């Protein structure tokens, strides 16, 4: 779920629109207002504590001080909703009133929120509409920009040497985390292979206020680590005033990823 709690897996399919683990797909669920505007951890920081999983054809939601909610994953009679992710139009299948009531209660929101699920026949985002470095035919569900965001543990360790309080990779919501490399070396990986999968780098991931939400507490500081990143990671003129940490990739060859596989840089 966009802005939801991270789900750690040992293996995942890497498809053109991102990672897939069983019935769970990365950033294929989106919280919205009743008029279709996205709701993320920027507006509702406690969303980062909500766990969304899929088991046996059911959608499962869990959150602090909330009862577990299970509803059918596929509800064909539910409405298709027109939504917006930032400035881009996209669609989603409504997940029903039970889910809406659960999320609205959890967020203690005065206004009703709903959850939508992206399905293959619905209108997807085209990243090219926001960033012309992406291929025109590229499609994603509800990510900010790309199907894959990759970063290294070393880059976060480097950041921590400059902070009073350490952060983890979870603060930055990557799809793929790489270990055993130098800090920021992912900035130079234009074309890589991991097992069967080939990825092509498009642009650096410009960081925003969401990085100041603690993934363990759901508290937003609006300060760190973003302020510190701005002092030394304004490295990509394409991202203007957003500091870079991690890189956006498209999937050139699909396949299955396994934790522990080496990352190989491809040169042409």
UniProtKB/TrEMBL annotation:
Residues 122-266 form the MOSC domain. InterPro entries: MoCF_Sase_C, MOCOS_middle, Pyrv_Knase-like_insert_dom_sf. GO terms for biological process: nitrate metabolic process. It comes from the Eukaryota. GO terms for molecular function: molybdenum ion binding; molybdopterin cofactor binding; nitrate reductase activity; pyridoxal phosphate binding. Pfam families: MOSC (PF03473), MOSC_N (PF03476). GO terms for cellular component: mitochondrial inner membrane. PANTHER family: MITOCHONDRIAL AMIDOXIME REDUCING COMPONENT 1, MOLYBDOPTERIN COFACTOR SULFURASE MOSC. This is Mitochondrial amidoxime reducing component 2. It comes from Sinocyclocheilus grahami. The gene is marc1.
């Amino acid at each position: 779920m966009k802005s939801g709690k991270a789900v750690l897996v040992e293996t995942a399919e890497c498809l053109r629109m991102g990672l897939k683990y069983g019935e769970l797909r990365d950033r294929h669920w989106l919280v919205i207002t009743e008029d279709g505007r996205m709701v993320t951890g920027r507006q509702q920081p406690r969303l980062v504590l909500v766990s969304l999983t899929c088991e046996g054809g059911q959608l499962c939601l869990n959150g602090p001080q909330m009862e577990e909610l299970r509803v059918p994953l596929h509800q064909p009679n539910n409405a298709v909703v027109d939504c917006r992710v930032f400035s881009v139009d996209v669609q989603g299948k409504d997940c029903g009133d039970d889910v809406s009531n659960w999320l609205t209660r959890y967020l203690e929101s005065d206004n009703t929120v709903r959850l939508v699920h992206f399905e293959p026949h619905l209108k997807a985002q085209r990243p090219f509409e926001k960033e012309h470095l992406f291929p025109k035919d590229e499609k994603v569900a509800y990510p900010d920009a790309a199907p894959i965001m990759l970063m290294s543990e070393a880059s976060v360790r480097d950041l921590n040497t400059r902070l009073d309080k350490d952060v983890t990779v979870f603060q930055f919501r990557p799809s793929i985390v790489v270990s055993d490399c130098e800090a920021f070396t992912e900035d130079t990986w234009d074309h890589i292979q991991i097992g069967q999968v080939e990825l092509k780098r498009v642009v650096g991931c410009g960081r925003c206020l969401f990085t100041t939400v603690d993934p363990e507490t759901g508290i937003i500081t609006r300060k760190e680590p973003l302020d510190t990143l701005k002092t030394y990671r304004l490295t990509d003129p394409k991202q203007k005033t957003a500091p870079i940490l991690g890189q956006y990739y498209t999937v050139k060859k699909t396949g299955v990823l396994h934790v522990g596989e080496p990352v190989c840089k491809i040169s042409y």
